[in-house]
Amino acid sequence: MNQSIRVKISGVGHYLPDYVLTNAELEKIVDTSDEWIVTRTGIKERRILKDPDKATSYMASRAAKEVLQQTGTDPKDIDAILVATVTPDYLFPATACIVQQEIGATNAYGYDIEAACSGFLFALTTGSSLIESGRAKKVLVIGADKMSSIIDMSDRTTSILFGDGAGAVLLEKSTDDTGIIDFIQRSSGENNEALIMLAGGSRHPASTETVSNKMHVISQEGKTVFKMATMGMADVAAEIMERNGLTGEDVEWLVPHQANLRIIDATANRMGISREKVMINIDRYGNTTAATIPLCLYDWKDKLKKGDNLILAAFGGGFTWGSVYVKWSL
After folding, report:
1. Is domain 180-327 in CATH 3.40.47.10, yes or no?
2. Ranges of residues in the chain whose predicted pLDDT is under 50
3. CB count, 10 Å around CB of 219?
4. Which of 257, 281, 296, 309 is catalytic?
5. Residue ranges of the domains in the chain?
6. Catalytic: 257?
């Protein structure tokens, strides 16, 4: 990273659908129970965008508008819009283009980034690089997913996990030593089918067969994903701390991807920090994929202090994983 120019998060916005899907409701749909779900995942409820006419861009645009209003930013001053998502409105045009039109960012260009649950972190560092290079001054980074659109509600291994939502941050040049300090990003396609949506791309285009075989929804090998995610998130979070000379006492907050409470706890333990210093909202929102980390930042924004050391960590399909060290600027 170009440390002569540091990039800060200057504001955070969010959007969550009104409809709350509880574990009690899921008990009526699939063979599961509140106790089983909470014990294994930590999830009690999740938000669902019920309106069939509203898609990921709807949530992303509202999160973006909130951060623009919060920071007093004219949409016309935005240079670039990066939307991290695995549930774009369409394969093309990019959801970022729809957001650009919706929020009136007429001078911005935009594109989508697809790295599953690591998408927001990958988009965050990409946006930071645009500013470091001098190619942009203000970048909107949005994590948004309508996971309910690619879930088989009869599959109890996945239907209990996911929710819908969006979070957005505004990136700008920092005027002090706060901001994005360092990042580590990794990927491996070795177990690419352990977490996958088999159809809808060029390998298996939509057909009567793909629809009847439920190939347009998430397919997951739970044990493989759990094992890899636990190791991946914990390793990369510990690695970035070591690389920057940080101990558990130096870190004010762990901001983890909200996939599973046991994975979050394993990451915190590896970092040597207590759960009191971990942002956790999986119990209320479930796994919102690319939206989990910015939603955490939004929920905790009033507790964060300028100069706080934050470690952001995620793991997602691909596999992709990474960590970002941020010194909070607000």
Report:
1. yes
2. none
3. 17
4. 257
5. 7-176, 180-327
6. yes
